[in-house]
Every structure is written in C-alpha cells, then in structure tokens.
Design brief:
heterodimer, A: 294 residues, alpha/beta, Rossmann fold, 2 domains, six-stranded mixed beta sheet, four-stranded antiparallel beta sheet, 10 helices, 34% helix, globular, B: mainly alpha, 14 helices, 0% strand
C-alpha cells in the first residue's frame, strides 16, 4: 500500500505559486526524503497533506484516505514535526504532552516517558524557558508519543546538537524497522543521504526528479577545483557537467568516474586540487538545468 | 472537551480580573446609593438643569435616580454592558486567531480533530466564560442591593442582570466571526475594543438626535438599553430574538469559513 499518493497537487496563494502539479508516491516502510532549497514548496506540500491549507486543484491520499475529507482520521496515525516549533507559552513540556495525549484514543503515557528519557528533557520547565534544541525535542516527543504509522518531518534537525541529531536519526531508523513510514523534508543533502531510501528533489514548486538513494550515490556528484602552473587546459570528459575558468583555476561540476578526471588532470602541472561534495544547490541546479533542456 | 478545558484554563486569569473589576465597581457604586437617596431633592434640581439631549442619552428622562433600580440603571448598568461588551468582544476576536498568532495552530490542527471541533470548543469556552462573568457580577450586585438598597423589587432587577449577557453573547459571536480573519493579537484587541465603542457611539447618537434615531436598530446596546427595560418592565422578547439571531448567524458563518480556511503560520 502507498502511504502517500499525490496526483497533480497544486496550490496557489492568490497569484503567487506554492506548488504546481506535484505527483508523489511514498510506499509503506520507506524513509522518503523531500529535498529542495528554501521556498521550493516543501512546507506547502506538507501543509496540504495535513490539510492546514486546501489544494487549488489536484488531490492526495494519506494512508489511503483523502487529505481533505478524512483529515482527522489521517492525523490519528500521523506524527508531525513542524519546521518552526512553537507551543503554548504558559504550559510546561509535561503539560503539553498530557494535553496532546488526551487528543488520541490510545494511552500514550508510557511511550512519552520512554521518549523523555531518551532525549533527556526536563518536563517541568515552561516551554518559553527552553532553548531551541530543547524545544525541538519537545516537538519530536509529541510527534512520536502516539506511535503513528507515518512521520511527517519538516526540516526537523535545525537546532539539534550533533549528539541529539544522531540519537534522533537512530530513533527514526528504529521506528522505520518497526514499520513506520517517514516523510523527511530537508535542505541539507548529507542528512537525507544518511537516512533516506528514496528522495524527491523539488524546485520552484515542482518535483524535478525522484531517485533511489543508491542511484544518487552512484552518480557521485563532485565539485572539483584545480589550479594550474600554466594556462588552464581544455578538458573534454563526458563527466564534466559544467565548468568555469577563473585566472589559472578551473572549477568543474563533475558527475562521472573520478579516476578518469584525475588521470586526465595528472598530465598537467597542477599547483592545487580540491575535490568536494557539492552543496544541494549545485545538485539542484544541475537537475534544474537538465529539466530545462528537456 | 479537551480543547474546551484548555481554553477555560488558559483564559482563567483574564476572566478573574475582568469579573472582579466589574463586580467591585458595581458594589462600590451601590454603596453610594444611600447618600444619593438622601439628597434626592437636590439631585432632581441638578438633573433638571442638564441639557435635554444629555438627559435622554442616559435615560434620565425615564428613570428615577432616587430609586434603587433607577440608580443602578443609570450609574452602574452602562459600565457592565459597555466594559462587559469589550471583554466579550475581545474574547471573540482573539479566540480563533490566537492559535495562528502564537503559531500553535500547527500543533492543534495536527491532532485528530476536525475544524468543527475547534470552533465548537472555542464557542463553548466563550459562552461559559460570559455566563460565569455575568453570574458572579449578578450575585455581587444582588448582595449590594440587599446591603445598600434593600427596598427594591427583584422582578425589576433581574432583567437588568440578564440583559448584558444577551448583548455580550452577540458581541462575542461577532468578534468570533472576525477572528477567522484577524490572526494578529494586537489587531484583534484593537478591533474588539473599536467595534464595541463604535456600537456604543451609535447608541448615543441615536438617543440624542431625532434624525438619526433609526440607527438604534444597528446597535446591540439599544436592544438591551436599561431605560427601555425598566420602562417595559422586562426585556422585550423580540429584542432578545434579534440579538440571538445575530449571534447564531455569526457563529454559523464562523463554522463555514473556518472549515474552508487556509491556516497561516
């Protein structure tokens, strides 16, 4: 069964674009990455799926139920971590969990205690007194306390320190092993690469590409910068997707076999060589240009 | 129910402050009554000197300051209905929008509840608070009559204690409808205060000017005007029906609009 199925999902805010004709299929048991720069439409898509906003056209199902007609039933089985975490100022974290718990039919107290222990959170403090990282922990716990079938995470790692981030990812993997589907939006490629099975790349409101993580890894995009003692030579390799020359320095966005490139470069007199993982923006630009050419 | 209890708890402090303030005000004003009654003759002379329009605005032409009910209707009633109206309107205008202003809508609407459930919880919370507000003020006022002006008729006083609730429910319902659109707390407060003062101003203008008298139909304060109630010997049912109708329409429209609303976060 598909946990998320969107067809032609479109949202305009007045005249300004949210997302246009988004098709998405997320299978049960997947960790699905949803990646794109800020303003690409990630949050809009999530807010549509949770019916905070209404689609201009198109439709979608979550857990086999229509997102508009059966929203409450969907939410009983969905845990959501918002990008910006804000709760009631006058409540302590513990009160918030109890309040949240009462909205679900099942008893979440035991699971809540486990999660609080796991993330080492002081539940007696008022929400407004918590640091950003601790606020994020509150969001994680309230999203997981009712043991949902689907987790919808909107850039969930912001504010978490590396240790907590690791614990969080570990928790997501455990939940996933137990059958929970994870929909993970992010603008950081490396965290999506660490966690996800499949990834959709979204830009300017449209899904540009859906790829298996293993395929994306195989393509091995690299940013390569080489400086030469003399003039920059003309390189002609199939893996060079774009290049730029600056004085004696060559900058290449490379998507082929790195050995070929190194072999080719070694024939010249180099003064420096840098090979880096590209930023999401670079990868995104590549897909975006490719899309434009087609 | 969960949401209702949460709302009542979150608002309890402001409810307490408003209730205490107006109850104490009513009590202190009634404490002045014995002194007023003693100097009734001088008061009558003084009143006769007031401009006619002014007297009409406060119902002095139809009410007697030397009697407990007349005194209450002139001195205290307008405070309860005006300040109580502001309290009610603010309750309404902040009710739905505050979840968006405080960015808690994303939490609340991610729970397995419908938009209808949200509106119902908020409507009930508003109504219950206004009920408690008026009951406490009513009881304190009754006590103050017993102490300072025991020579009154309960049949005449009761309508004056119930009428503000009717007006407040209508004002709160209008506020609730506005709160679908007002998602900033600051603007919700100024809109709430503003439209109640606007209605009160209309009420005053309609009372003073013969040409603008028809404006009285557009303000809840006229429907629940103290002089009218005392004169008629009770609240006229059709006036209650008009305000109840306004409240029902506002709440109905709130349900429809909130159900289709894009939540801004």
């Amino acid at each position: 069964m598909n946990v998320i199925e969107a067809r032609g999902l479109t949202k305009y805010y007045g005249k300004s674009r949210g997302i246009v004709d988004v098709d998405l299929t997320v299978a049960q048991g997947e960790i699905f990455g949803f990646i794109g720069p800020n303003g690409a439409g990630k949050s809009t898509t999530i807010r549509l799926l949770l019916n905070f906003i209404f689609p201009t056209r198109g439709h979608a199902q979550v857990l086999g139920k229509d997102i508009v007609k059966h929203s409450p039933a969907i939410k009983a089985e969905v845990g959501y971590i918002p990008g910006e975490v804000d709760y009631y100022d006058d409540m302590t974290a513990g009160e918030l969990f109890a309040y949240s718990d009462r909205y679900y039919k099942k008893d979440c107290r035991q699971r809540t205690r486990q999660l609080v222990e796991m993330f080492d959170l002081d539940t007696k403090k008022k929400f407004r007194e918590l640091s950003l990282g601790n606020k994020k922990k509150v969001a994680i716990i309230q999203a997981l306390q009712h043991q949902p079938q689907l987790l919808v995470l909107d850039e969930p790692t912001g504010g978490l320190d590396p240790l907590m981030q690791r614990r969080f990812f570990q928790l997501l993997r455990e939940e996933n092993k137990g059958g929970v589907t994870v929909f993970f939006s992010s603008h950081i490629l490396s965290e999506v690469q660490r966690l996800c099975h499949r990834v959709a790349i979204i830009g300017e409101g449209s899904v540009l590409k859906v790829e298996d993580m293993s395929d994306l890894r195989r393509t091995h995009f690299r940013n390569v910068r080489a400086s030469f003692a003399g003039d920059v030579p003309d390189l002609d390799l199939p893996g060079i997707l774009s290049s730029q020359v600056d004085n004696n320095t060559l900058q290449v966005f490379f998507g082929g076999d790195i050995n070929e490139l190194v072999a080719c470069l070694s024939a010249h007199n180099l003064t420096g060589l840098w090979v880096e993982e590209p930023s999401l923006e670079d990868v995104f630009m590549h897909y975006y240009e490719e899309e434009g050419e087609q | 129910m969960n949401l209702l209890f949460r709302e009542l708890k979150a608002n309890s402090r402001s409810l307490l402050i408003w209730t205490l303030a107006l109850a104490v005000l009513n009590f202190s004003l009634m404490a002045l009554f014995p002194a007023f009654a003693d100097g009734a003759e001088q008061m009558d002379e003084f009143m006769a000197m007031l401009p006619e329009e002014f007297a009409r605005m406060f119902g002095l032409d139809r009410l007697n300051l030397a009697e407990p009910i007349g005194f209450y209707a002139i001195e205290a009633y307008f405070m309860v209905i005006l300040f109580g109206g502001i309290f009610a309107a603010i309750l309404g205008t902040t009710m739905l929008g505050k979840e968006e202003d405080e960015k808690t809508a994303e939490f609340l609407l991610a729970k397995p509840i419908s938009r209808h459930y949200v509106v119902t919880g908020k409507v009930l919370a508003t109504a219950i608070q206004l009920l408690v507000f008026n009951m406490v003020i009513g009881l304190v006022t009754l006590a103050s009559f017993e102490i300072f002006a025991p020579d009154y008729s309960i049949g005449e006083l009761l309508p004056l204690l119930v009428a503000p609730l009717v007006a407040q429910l209508a004002l709160a319902a209008l506020g609730l409808l506005l709160s679908v659109f007002i998602t900033r707390r600051k603007s919700a407060l100024s809109v709430g205060i503003g439209f109640v003062l606007g209605f009160y101003f209309l009420h005053a203008v309609a009372a003073i000017s013969d040409k603008l008298e028809f404006l009285k139909f557009a303000t809840p304060f006229w429907y629940m005007d103290a002089a009218g109630i005392v004169e008629h010997g009770g609240i006229e049912l059709w006036k209650v029906a008009v305000l109840a109708g306004v409240a029902a329409l506002s709440v109905g429209a709130t349900y429809l609009l909130y159900k289709k609303k894009d939540i801004k976060i």
